[in-house]
Design a protein that fits this description.
Layout: E1 2-7, E2 26-33, E3 42-43, E4 55-56, E5 61-69, E6 72-79, H1 89-101, E7 105-110, E8 116-117, H2 133-155, E9 158-159, E10 161-168, E11 172-174, E12 187-194, E13 200-207, E14 220-221, H3 224-237, E15 241-245, E16 251-253, H4 262-278, E17 290-300, H5 308-317, H6 320-326, H7 329-332, E18 335-336, E19 339-345, E20 349-354, E21 357-358, H8 360-369, E22 374-378, E23 387-388, H9 391-396, H10 412-427, E24 443-445
Parallel strand pairs: 4-14, 6-7, 13-15, 20-22, 21-23
Antiparallel strand pairs: 1-17, 1-24, 2-5, 2-9, 3-8, 5-6, 10-12, 11-16, 12-13, 17-18, 17-19, 19-20
Helix pairs in contact: 1-2, 3-4, 5-6, 8-10
Length: 452
């Protein structure tokens, strides 16, 4: 395993005096629709092949919150899409918002709805051009929309209060393991931002359950239950609701008789969100600060993507243009490079975003090991690198744990969670960051380790 790291600028010894020059805590938000206007292939179910969308059940949105603490700015972006932006898009998005708005940390997650459009198709022969030009144009417009949403939120910041809370909500279940007891992360996390008078500015909601409540044969665009939940929360709180999916790689929805169906389930979870949000007492941070570390890992793949037969298999499972567009240079070298961002907000709340479908035990163990620090885990964040089962789950096998959809070598998720834990303690001042790290968000490489 190789790890490349980017660290925020006010670490190490400067942390000792970080309260002396505290900046004002400010928050801005933005919301914009991203529903494709033309029929395009849909994301999420291989059996659909290249079938085009047939309409709109409910619209798709980007919702963004930007936290501004002087020289450090964090954008939290929730999208009604199956995944986060591609690895090719992310550097361009980072550069654009850094230059335009000074935003230096990003957490961009897809809700993982299986009724959104594909975004991987490219303006290249056999990768989208010609056959799927509308999808290529929409993908290009998505990148622009993300950038504009972040810049709009950054431009609208104003002094704010902050609070967060969580509760256990038994509306999800483990769909993978046959072993008892089945692990489930049922924590519903809510971050509430208010203006100085205590009126809601925005809420960020974190929960883990697959948004697959609609039939795969339904070819209409839909945000599934996260969209219904966000809509219901916004109607009551009169503020944007940014949904950040959790570690739901092995978790599905578990509705009861009153919450069956997309709208009923979303409304039921919204009631839990509103109850949690109303119980949160927000305050003006006395020493506001954002600290963060971006990590990019490198692991061996479980499948030989360098073998043409593997690529033929995926062309058959989905459709050729999507398979061709998804075969990055890394995959063709039998390497996979997942991303992870660790944020510590005001030295109290840790936000960990990872670029894949992590099984819930990863988040459960990280939260337990972080001890006195609250942790919210964001899946499908800053990229998408398929399933990350635990070692035990990979050994058990089954969908989500076998090599057909879990491309990364066993143990990769554990390695990343170990790094996340070290990052949290480092950002809290328990450890010194690698001395080769320099201020100003400069990347460096740690010594290479063997892949698991």
């Amino acid at each position: 395993m190789r790890v490349h790291r980017i660290a925020s600028g006010w670490l190490l010894g400067l942390c000792l005096v970080q309260g002396a020059f505290a900046a004002e805590f400010q928050v801005g938000h933005a919301k914009r629709e991203i529903t494709p206007a033309a029929p395009v292939p849909m994301w999420g179910y291989g059996a659909r092949g290249a079938a085009l969308s047939t309409g709109v059940r409910d619209p798709l949105f980007i919702r963004t919150v930007v936290i501004d603490v002087g020289s450090d700015k964090l954008a939290i972006v929730g999208m009604d899409l199956g995944r986060a932006p591609t690895d090719a898009m992310l550097p361009r998005i980072r550069k654009a918002v850094r230059e335009a708005s000074g935003v230096n940390f990003l957490l961009i997650s897809g809700s993982h709805t299986h009724h959104g459009p594909v975004m991987e198709l490219l303006d290249e022969p056999d990768k989208g051009r010609g056959r799927f030009d509308d999808a290529v144009r929409w993908s290009q417009s998505l990148e622009t929309a993300i950038i504009e949403s972040i810049n709009q939120a950054a431009a609208s910041v104003r002094p704010a209060r902050l609070g967060w809370g969580s509760k256990s909500v038994a509306m999800n279940r483990n769909r993978h393991t046959e072993r008892e007891p089945k692990p489930v992360d049922s924590e519903l996390g809510v971050i509430r931002f208010d203006d100085l008078e205590g009126n809601p500015l925005a809420v960020v909601v974190n929960y883990a359950a697959h948004p697959t409540m609609l039939d795969s044969r339904d070819l209409r665009f839909s945000a599934d239950w996260p969209g219904a939940m966000a809509k219901a929360v916004e109607e009551v709180l009169q503020s944007p609701c940014v949904f950040m999916q959790g570690a739901c790689g092995d978790l599905s929805c578990q509705p009861d008789e009153q919450s069956r169906g997309v709208d009923a389930f979303g409304a039921a979870l919204a009631r839990q969100v509103i109850e949690t949000a109303n119980a949160i007492a927000t305050k003006i941070p006395q020493r506001p600060r954002i600290r963060g570390i971006d990590d990019t890992f490198e692991f061996e793949t479980r499948l030989p993507f360098s073998n043409p037969l593997t690529r033929v298999m995926f062309s058959t499972a989905f459709f050729p243009e999507l398979a061709n567009a998804s075969m990055t240079e890394d995959l063709l070298r039998n390497r996979i490079r997942p991303n992870m961002t660790t944020i510590l907000l005001n030295q109290e709340l840790a936000l960990v975003g990872c670029s894949g479908e992590f099984f819930c035990e990863h988040s459960l163990r990280l939260k337990e090991r972080a001890r006195d620090t609250d942790v919210f885990f964001f899946g499908y964040c800053n990229g998408h690198h398929m399933y990350f089962p635990t070692i035990e789950a990979a050994a058990e096998g089954g969908y989500g744990a076998d090599s057909a959809v879990s491309w990364v070598s066993p143990g990769a998720g554990e390695s990343m969670m170990d790094t996340a834990l070290i990052n949290i303690y480092t950002l809290k001042g328990s450890f010194l960051l690698d001395r080769t790290a320099r201020s100003g968000n400069t990347a460096h490489e740690t010594p290479a380790l063997k892949a698991p």
